[in-house]
Fold each of these.
Amino acid sequence: MTFSDLVYAGLGVGALAAAVLPRVVFSRPFSMPMVFLAAGAAVQLLPLPVPVVDPVADRLWVEHITEVCVIVSLMGAGLAINRPPGLRSWAGSWRLLGVTMPLTIVVTAVLAWAVLDWPPAAALLLGAVLAPTDPVLAAEVRVGEPTDAEEDEDEVRFTLTSEAGLNDGLAFPFVLAAVALAASAGTGWSAGWIGGWVPSDALGKVAIGAVAGVVVGRLLGWMFFRARAAALRLSEHMEGFVALAATFLSYGVAELLHGYGFLAVFVAACALRAAERSHGYHKVLHEFTEQIERLLTAFLLFLLGGYVAGGGLAALTWQSAAVGLLLLLVVRPVTGWLAQLGSAAGPRERIVTAVFGLRGIGSLYYLAYALGHDDFGGLDRQLWAAVAFTVLASVALHGVTATPVISRLDRLRRKTGPGEPPP
């Protein structure tokens, strides 16, 4: 038996498990990501020649595989959302993006600086990489497949999905702020980087990413549904792999123009969906992206489980673990609740939306990306331990609670209507 034989067998088992597990764990208080994390840890502990993926030594590889996983999930999220974008219809999302995300970054950075005694740049980086949310890791809290009815989406699932679709791109300016601060001041503090960061990273790249997404999405929408040449009207052929073309094209164009590709992918998906909102081709595209996303997520979580079992948390201290738990149990719930004060959502919807801010693959990507530009005072392993622990805790906490909480919320909604208190 060679190692390659073992890899092929493992890949086959993993792919089958990724297909079967969502049905097995449906309506149960655990999730598919929890199973793959546990499987990765278990295999690592067996007497088998299984290498450990070290995100410090293998940083570039980790950066690109997490990058692909994130952009595929963003395309799937944008295609799944039935509600057209708007200031009022997406009010819950704008509140979380405008209030919760920046407050989460600031509070987490202050905790890292005060509790961990990290330099400002590393503290800001920890806050920035842990800001994006990821409902992919708990399917119960995201919207389902595309339908032709806007009212099919309940407020909690819609808000969490749209928030995650946008904050994966809007967290990038803060990651670049940490990189700029590290380059400018090292382990100290300097404000000299802000003058260049605001027009370029905070404003310009956001605008370029959004515009690139709209343009690519509309052009593809015209091509798929309205082109005169039958060969170009791909909606008539119902081939799902075209979703990858839309994903990579929107991402690549935005990045070539020095914009934020994550933002462009989600915006392009929403623009593509708007081209023919009720067309069945969107369901085909979404199903394909969901399958690819599920495989990539399972693979990455398996590797993460192996990394943790192989000593990946050796650099974790009780202080950094405390910061991660405070983020999940206090910072996100409180800032999420504050952002929704005065909103149209009912109190129980506000609570669930505030609590279920999952951390996931996006955090791993951002950390790998940032550490490719600076070592942040030699804190690379401490950063990886803190982020990996927070993702693990989020997967466990939200994976166990998502099914019972969302099921109860659905039952109450059917009895009393959205937002009303139960009898």
Note: Residues 67 and 223 are 27 Å apart (CA to CA).
Amino acid sequence: MHQFLDTFFNLHLIGGVFPSLLKVGLRNTVLLAALASVIGLIVGILLAAGLMSRTALVRAPCRAYVDVLRGLPHILSIYLIGQGLPLAGLNVFGGWTYGYAALAIGLTEGAYMAEIFRSGFQSVDPGIVEASRSLGMSHRSTMRLVVIPIGFRSVLPALTGQFILVIKATALVYLLGLVTGQREMFAIAQDASTNDASLSPLVAAGVLFLAITIPLTYAVNAWDRRLRDGRRSPSAAAPAETAPPQEVLT
């Protein structure tokens, strides 16, 4: 029992690594997740539009991208994109490792977000689309002004849930080789775990990840319930007033 506690719950090691996790790791994890989410949103919207295109030459490449990126393990995609681009001479971010890490996660998550957006856009009532077209709006204008705004609102809970996966995916960027000041929570915990021959630093990192993801998960579930159930109007929530009895004329 003592060996088990010393392996996973060594309070001395956990207390020693927490300052670095909070000051450096948490900041870098949030930064990477934010950058990757922005890239994923842009890629996801563009891919969703391509998947719904009437032109096969546009639809087919988008479908291939989504199928390939969703079919590959995250760790393989991040390694191939984050390490492969610099090795291939495509130094789009120079020596900025964050850029490659965020791009790798964003391109991968964009494939998942594309299906979320597509399902949301296609769930818009066809009658609304037909009404927009009958008013003389073009297909592009209908998509931009009607379908996307309505569909975007319906997928917000699922999209927020995808952001939680982005936060967890930041743990894989240690493959790209981060310098000391760029390490995210997992990289810091892994280095400390290797140096101290204990898994307690990794448990500390897991606690911080849970402190972020669990509240977000409950918030997403509550948000989803609110969108599905709707807010009861005051008139519906309040009991109907009983009409006063009318006098009977004799």
Note: The chain has one domain: 2-230.
Amino acid sequence: MTTLAAAVAEAKACFAAGGLPDAAIESRILIGGLLGLTSTQVFTGGDRVLTDEESALIKKAIARRLKREPVHRILGEREFHGIKLKLSKETLEPRPDTEILVDTLLPHVRQIVASKAEVRILDLGTGTGAIVLAILNECPQAKGWGADISEDALLTAQINAASLNLSDRFEAIRSDWFQAIEGRFDIIVSNPPYIKGDVIPTLEPEVRDFDPLAALDGGLDGLDAYRVIAAGAGNALASGGVVGVEIGFDQKDSVTALFAAAGFALLEAVRDYGDNDRVLVFTRQQSGN
């Protein structure tokens, strides 16, 4: 018989031996997620005897993690900004730094609601729907559209919207950036691919081998998606609206220049938890500037 505590200890030892840096934390998250237990229940329920099926499930998951598959990929879901999101093969795993983009835009969302009673949000490259669904979850007056080229991603976003009871305010659109987008939006938001193509082979296996390449590869200079967004945002942005994007740590000046050339002014720049530039918010340049 194997207890919960013994299983956690075994997972921790395997991960440490495999060179994984957060062995203790990951062992608890993985086993808790597999068994549907909270972190507190994992801590306090160490004497629980596991069934043979549970033990086998855990062993298989440990083997997958040792092959560098991320914990949340194994579990098939991840929490983001207080909501739980399903992951799929063609969706980027949402990360804490992207929560900064949500938090940065929420005051703008609420300001627009105060003046217009509603707010229309377009999330380009929506993936799991993380950004737009997190905003809809915080703002009942918001309506959101998630655009993506991937049918797999769009289906995942729709599943996530349904699980959060947000389907009535969310629509998934298959679109290559703005190609199939109609109408105007108060908020245009994106966490686009921004890694230089030649850097991708050097990334950690958890990212390089398990996040979809289309969500990572920003072209030779990492700026391909920003060029498209900057060029198309003017035709899709409502009066008084803003564009918010996540960026790489060294891209503030280059992305700002792209948007400036397209008629936008930098309204706000926000750093992440590592004190790197992470979020930029743009508004239309005022005439005469």
Note: The chain has a mean pLDDT of 97.
